[in-house]
Automatic annotation (TrEMBL):
The keyword Hydrolase applies. This is Lipase. One of its GO terms (molecular function) is hydrolase activity. The keyword Protein biosynthesis does not apply. Keywords: Hydrolase. InterPro entries: AB_hydrolase_3, AB_hydrolase_fold, GDXG_lipolytic_enzyme. Transmembrane segments: none annotated. Residues 2-142 form the Alpha/beta hydrolase fold-3 domain.
Length: 170
């Protein structure tokens, strides 16, 4: 059984995009009422031209060309890429008002860092309670890579996400 009064969305990378879009759709449709969003190194924009994309174009793990390939396989239509259900960062603050509180984690050495942090700032401007944390020295998908699973920052990030979910779903 699912308690429809205790729902949250969570996702990492493109899953973070999906979680964000589900929250936007739920708000727009008026149901279901979500209590929280956990967005781990999320994709929030179809643009490839910001500081972290330029700094980490050749990666640590995720590159600009990989992201271009992913987007091209999702849609090559520029108008679709600009829609808020594809690029939530392009939503207005008015469109973001009323979203559930959010935790947004980013990795310092990730092409997605700046768009995740920009989305956190935009949520804040819309009056959405948001906790944004950059994990220094981390790369994309740090929370899922076995090779770094015992690194204290990774353990801290996973603990933070689980504690926030637990707190908001009481």
């Amino acid at each position: 059984n699912v308690d429809g009064k205790r729902l949250a969305v969570a996702g990492n990378s493109v899953g973070g995009n999906m979680a964000t879009v589900v929250a936007l759709m739920a708000k727009d449709k008026g149901t279901p009422a979500l209590r929280y969003q956990v967005l781990l190194w999320p994709v929030t924009d179809a643009s490839f031209d910001n500081g972290s994309y330029n700094q980490y174009a050749e990666g640590h793990f995720l590159t600009r060309n990989m992201m271009k390939w992913f987007w091209d396989n999702y849609t090559t239509d520029a108008a679709q890429r600009n829609e808020i259900y594809a690029s939530p960062l392009r939503a207005t603050t008015e469109q973001l008002k009323g979203l559930p509180p959010a935790l947004i984690q980013t990795a310092s050495a990730d092409v997605l860092r700046d768009e995740g942090e920009a989305y956190a700032r935009k949520l804040d401007q819309a009056g959405v309670p948001v906790t944004a944390v950059r994990y220094n020295g981390m790369i994309h998908d740090y929370g899922l890579l076995n090779v770094v699973s015992q690194v204290p920052a990774v353990r801290s990030a996973i603990l933070q996400a689980s504690q926030e979910l637990k707190e908001h779903l009481k």
